[in-house]
């Protein structure tokens, strides 16, 4: 699978363009995911050929915030991508994830809710210290 960064709910064109410009030098595939594809497994959206698509189209609510999913990146590449986002002057993008074997079969709303829940737990200080 090629190194890919998926963008979700970047409705502000200027923010989306700024983010894309910041990530382009890293030579990774950057793909904006349409809301109608939110029921697809995120691994499928990232290009994993072993994960089958679903036939359903999403017609629910938009995500509560912007989200980035990084797939097929090494730890060094993840660090580079995060550094590029910080240096872009874009401001915070709180919902970021890395594709794993644990989450690759989740759909977009499930992934978003998990990340959002983790953020809420961290904000309350209720996560175990080794995770924070």
UniProtKB/TrEMBL annotation:
- Per the record, the domain of life is Bacteria
| Entry protein name | DUF3783 domain-containing protein
């Amino acid at each position: 699978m090629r190194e890919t960064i998926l963008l979700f709910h970047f409705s502000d064109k200027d923010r989306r363009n700024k983010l894309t410009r910041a990530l382009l030098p890293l030579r990774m595939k950057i793909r904006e995911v349409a809301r109608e594809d939110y029921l697809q497994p995120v691994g499928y959206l990232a290009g994993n050929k072993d994960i089958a698509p679903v036939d359903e189209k999403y017609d629910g609510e938009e995500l509560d915030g912007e989200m980035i999913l990084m797939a097929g990146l090494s730890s060094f590449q993840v660090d580079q991508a995060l550094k590029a986002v910080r240096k872009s002057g874009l401001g915070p993008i709180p919902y970021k994830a890395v594709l794993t074997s644990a989450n690759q079969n989740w759909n977009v709303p499930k992934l978003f809710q998990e990340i959002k829940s983790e953020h809420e737990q961290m904000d309350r200080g209720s996560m175990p210290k080794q995770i924070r």
